[in-house]
Specification:
Layout: H1 2-13, E1 17-18, E2 31-32, H2 39-43, H3 49-52, E3 56-60, H4 75-78, H5 91-105, H6 127-136, E4 141-147, H7 173-183, E5 187-192, H8 215-218, H9 230-247, E6 251-254, H10 260-265, H11 269-288, E7 293-297, E8 307-310, E9 323-328, H12 344-356, E10 359-365, H13 375-391, E11 405-406, E12 426-431, E13 434-439, E14 447-450, E15 460-463, E16 472-475, E17 478-482, E18 493-498
Parallel strand pairs: 3-4, 3-10, 4-5, 5-6, 6-7, 7-8, 8-9, 9-10
Antiparallel strand pairs: 1-2, 11-12, 12-13, 13-18, 14-17, 15-18, 16-17
Helix pairs in contact: 6-7, 6-13, 9-11
Length: 500
């Protein structure tokens, strides 16, 4: 309690500044301001231009769960399946994890999740390679894998003793990635999922989780339905503040698991801690002289506060405030064996839909436990970057138009059928008085219909990746554009409508 009171007192004594700047730094006309935990204060922090104009971020899932590489990153909790645990969702499916583990590695009392850590070596991990790849992909920001639900910290943490510097890889993965990314001019932050750790593991005498020797990884022994306590929230808060102080992150990703304490038990500890962390982060950023971003999922905060994040495309319309959706490159969040990546055209259809609605795409990659990335994911990022070289002028720094577009496009969430989309779908973005129209299928008749674009009244239409002016006619509110005989560009096509 004394530490908590000292922390709060120190926070209240901060006297800091806030205003926006396109390069991420504050202008010379700063307004003296201190952020607190109230809605009005948190909501007054504007999303910086580097984020809202950057449109594309990359992050990764990487921890000891990459070693078993079985089905998904929830292996650490599902391997401890118990048929009398009321918290288990889809028990028949969850039981397959325990069955697989015991058949492959033996008794859960002798070989538990902790025993994957020495096998998690990252012997071929190269932060410079990832920084160069993220740069080539055309991304503006990156989030390093700091800590997942499993509770294994990927930095030299003083709060979490079970970390990647003291054991396993014996290296500061967060620090290496942060340094390498920033040398490439990429805004760099951390991805955090620690808000669910307090309830992640099942404790039974037949599991190694029961042994207090391993509480630094699994947490203190608790019953299945025990609610969270203030100590759990304070541990999460301490972890978040340590990351803020150690790495001065440009961006923080907070996973939706932090909501569980209130949603399931009506305990406000984590929700209150969330607001303290955000206020502290915003206030600290002023001392660093840069603008930062925090994204949140589910009900961790309220709309209008920070950046709302989701694992699906927003269904309707255009959001007034920048937001974000995150998807995987290959359908798995963590490495689960060799598999192909999503087709680049599927990723691009999702991407332009998000941007047309004032959203960003945060795309996940999943390295192997030795630290390398498979060629399928690497090639996807390279193809994405090549497309951005041609079409990025209508993506970066763009804003939504009067409408986001017409027709349905796919989401990449949960292995959905990425080929389910309307072939005549169109999306719009705008920048500097220019309207950009995006279409996802090359029409066989070579005539492209741009719904509502007649309201823009362009004088010329030029293909991105080409210089020739395209012929067009106005048909009510629509434009009918005559496409050239030979296709320009690839995958998803863009044309530029100008008034010059």
């Amino acid at each position: 309690m004394k530490r908590l009171l000292t922390y709060v007192a120190a926070l209240l004594m901060l006297s800091l500044f806030s205003c926006d700047g396109k390069n991420g730094k504050r202008s010379n006309t700063e307004i003296r301001k201190q952020y607190n935990t109230k809605h009005e204060s948190i909501a007054s922090y504007d999303v910086p231009a580097w984020y809202s104009e950057g449109k594309l971020g990359i992050f990764m899932h990487l921890s000891a769960f990459s070693v078993p590489a079985y089905k998904n990153e929830w292996y650490p909790t599902l391997m401890y399946y118990a048929d009398n645990n009321p918290n288990v969702i889809h028990p028949d499916w969850a039981k397959t994890f325990r069955d697989h583990h015991e058949a492959t590695y033996g008794s859960l009392k002798e070989f538990g999740y902790k025993d994957f850590i020495p096998m998690f070596k990252l012997e071929n991990f190269n932060a410079i390679y990832y920084a160069e790849l993220v740069k080539k992909a055309g991304a503006s920001y990156f989030a390093a894998p700091a800590v997942h639900h499993d509770g294994f910290a990927m930095w030299d943490s003083e709060v979490i003793n079970w970390n990647a510097v003291k054991m396993g890889p014996k290296r500061d993965v967060v620090g290496e990635l942060t340094t390498a990314m920033r040398k490439q001019g990429i805004k760099t932050g951390v991805s955090t999922h620690y808000g669910r750790h307090w309830k992640y593991y099942t404790f039974r005498p037949e599991f190694d989780t029961w042994n207090p020797e391993y509480k630094g990884l699994y947490g203190k022994r608790r019953r299945d339905t025990d609610p969270p306590n203030p100590e759990d929230a304070f541990k999460w808060e301490s972890v978040m503040n340590e990351l803020v102080d150690n790495y001065q992150p440009d961006y923080i990703f907070v996973d939706g698991g932090i909501c569980d304490a209130y949603t399931e038990y009506k305990k406000p500890y984590f929700r209150d801690a969330m607001y303290r962390v955000v206020a502290n982060y915003y206030n600290k950023s002023v001392t660093w002289d840069k603008r930062v971003v925090l994204s949140w999922k589910r009900d961790a905060m309220q709309k209008g506060q920070a950046v709302y994040d989701t694992e699906k495309n927003e269904a309707d319309g255009i959001s007034k405030r920048p937001w974000q959706a995150h998807f995987t490159a290959n359908g798995s969040w963590a490495y689960t064996g060799e598999k192909g990546a999503y087709p680049i055209e599927s990723v691009l259809r999702c991407f332009i839909d998000l941007v047309s609605r004032n959203g960003n795409l945060l795309l996940n990659i999943a390295p192997r436990p030795d630290g390398t990335l498979d060629k399928a994911q690497e090639n996807l990022l390279l193809e994405l970057g090549q497309w951005m070289e041609v079409n990025g002028e209508g993506i970066k720094e763009s804003t939504p138009w009067e409408i986001h577009g017409t027709g349905e496009l796919n989401s990449l969430r949960g292995g959905s059928n990425v080929n389910e989309y309307d072939t005549d779908a169109v999306r719009y973005t705008q920048k500097d008085g220019v309207l950009y129209a995006w279409f996802v299928s090359w029409p066989s008749a070579k005539n492209l219909t741009l719904p509502h674009a007649g309201n823009f009244n362009p004088e010329s239409i030029i293909p991105l990746g080409g210089n020739e002016r395209l012929k067009f006619v106005k048909d009510g509110e629509n434009l009918i554009v005559e496409l050239p005989e030979n296709q320009f560009g690839n995958y998803v096509w863009g044309v530029k409508l100008t008034k010059d």
